[in-house]
Amino acid sequence: MSGELAPLGMLTAALPLVRPGPLERLPGSAEDDPFHRLAAAWLVGHPGNTATAYRRDLTAWAAWCAQLGVHPLVAERHHVDLWVRHLTTTPQPATGRPASAATVARKLSALSGFYDFGVHDAQVLTHSPVASVRRPRVSDESAAVGLTADELRRLLAAAVAHSPRSAALVTLLTFCGLRISEALGADVRDFGHDRGHRVLRVTRKGGKAARVPLAPAVVRTLELYLGDRTAGPIFLSSDGVGRYAYRRAHEQLGRLCRSAGLPPGVTPHSLRHSYATEALRLGAALQDVQDALGHSDPRTTRRYDRSRHNLDRSPNYLLASALTTDDGE
Q1: Same domain, 304 and 160
Q2: pTM of the model
Q3: Element (H, E) at 247
Q4: Alpha-carbon torsion angle 80, 84, 87, 89, nearest 10
Q5: Residue 245 domain-assigned (yes or no)
Q6: Where is the Tyr recombinase domain (predicted)?
Q7: Could you give the residue numbers annotated as active site?
């Protein structure tokens, strides 16, 4: 079970008293830490990408508990509150900034789901330390850095100049609004045809499959990059064998942005943000953009658009124009 999560060797606290009968039904053996066993049982019920994200959250939580000398299965609400304070006030390794409200809310949601599973489904635990923790209020506006049409063109040019792989990935993310996990998780066999369209079959958040239509520019960059390959991941690691890792793709995007003279803070999700913003600006229907992004709620799609073009569309200008004269009176 140690392969599921980071080891808890730093813990000095005694293992928790859990219900022995239900614990025996979990994966693993008596030699495995009950936290690992419970985590394995919970994670197996989630799609691959979701399970990977939740595993990272549980590993971070376990590491925080280790610093406090508290086993995760005996943690109390105040330990969770301390973790939230740490996340919101301390620069995080991946970004160099404190975690956003949306990030903290997502981590707490994962933690809450894990403990609820332990209490209600596995019946190993008697209570959840997250049950009464206050969730941060998430803004209606996306915090992602959105790029303008001109900035997107500069980034695309930098990607084409760099390599066929960079050109294919940046073009796919820019013109299709995919999550980076959807793009990197696709295989060559997923690139095909459907009713006269070139499409890419991707696995959405939650494990749902979707066929994404590809514009000619995307098809050209993918075909150039793939060459005569007929199997394996579309995006390969530098050794040409394994799948291109998220961290490497994120780092490469940062280098491309610097080469294109773009503002700092651009991430793969920024391209998804920009896709929604620019598509709506160009007149695409909200429902069509919602479907393209795989959102179940239109309010999620609207979050991407509010930060820029809501100012341009403000009725304040219409009213002021109608009620004032040309000389401002």
Answers
A1: yes
A2: 0.60
A3: helix 246-259
A4: -130
A5: yes
A6: 142-323
A7: 179, 205, 269, 272, 295, 304
